[in-house]
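Field guide to reading this record: the first block holds the primary sequence, the second block holds the structure written as discrete tokens, and the final block holds curator observations. Each block starts with its own label. This record concerns Sugar ABC transporter permease, catalogued under organism Actinoplanes cyaneus.

BLOCK 1 — SEQUENCE
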Amino acid sequence: MTRRKPAAAILFFVLPFGLLFIAFYLAPIGYAIKQSLYKVTRTGTFGPAREVFGGLEQYQRVFENGPFWSSIGRVLLFGVVQVPVMLGLALLLALLLDSGLVRGRAFFRLAFFVPYAIPGVIAAIMWGFLYSPNLSPFTAVTKTWDLLSADLVLWAMANVVTWVYVGYNMLIIYSALLAIPQEVYEAATLDGAGPIRTAWSVKIPLVMPAIVLTTVFSIIGTLQLLAEPQVFRTFSSAVSSTYTPNLTVYSTSSIPNFNLAAAFSVVLALATCVLSFAFLKVTQRGADK
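BLOCK 2 — STRUCTURE
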């Protein structure tokens, strides 16, 4: 009887999470995979639509879809440039807050985090108006450089994402810095390390797990980019309905072609998992050396 009680307690605490995990994570994934294996056919030109099993036909269409793979390449380029810049700024701000150089840390923590509290759509609309040559208060800049042109609109969106998420990532890294024992800093000081040397040789290596975590989150978020390009479509003709993978999924489901959209989603989810796990493997190998 004493052995059954811990098992019952574990089941009591795990069951709510398990049910929610199945209902809101595994079930939608399973439904998307099921939908991707079907196709819609019609009898004649104006016959009623019927959903029949199509096997891997939708996936064949995904791999033959040039705009979709172009959008994947576009967000990968976006991530290669934007993610290091964003996390570099987040790390710098976290180190500054953790140093003795900044007064009013509570105020600056809140100030850096406030952009993350603004919904992504609202932030994109706000920056879209700032970028618009006819609406922006900074006309000297927007008329010299068309930030909504085909060449610059991707980086204009990168600026929005960076502005929103720097504070969020900064808090994660800053929390890791606060967890470092004070004795470590005292030992570094006794060894003659100054503030910069301490930050480079002590703080950054010890918060590397937090940096890896924020990088994984950023990789996932990059491939899921949707709100910014969807809003920027109203400001710039350079942003098409297939500009990012998630926008392609959204546009395809709006046709509506739910089966093809489900296949796009499954392939995008697999690509996200592969990139995230590949990055984790690379960082783990580096840590083991």
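BLOCK 3 — OBSERVATIONS
The longest strand covers residues 38-42.
The domain at 65-288 is CATH 1.10.3720.10 (MetI-like fold).
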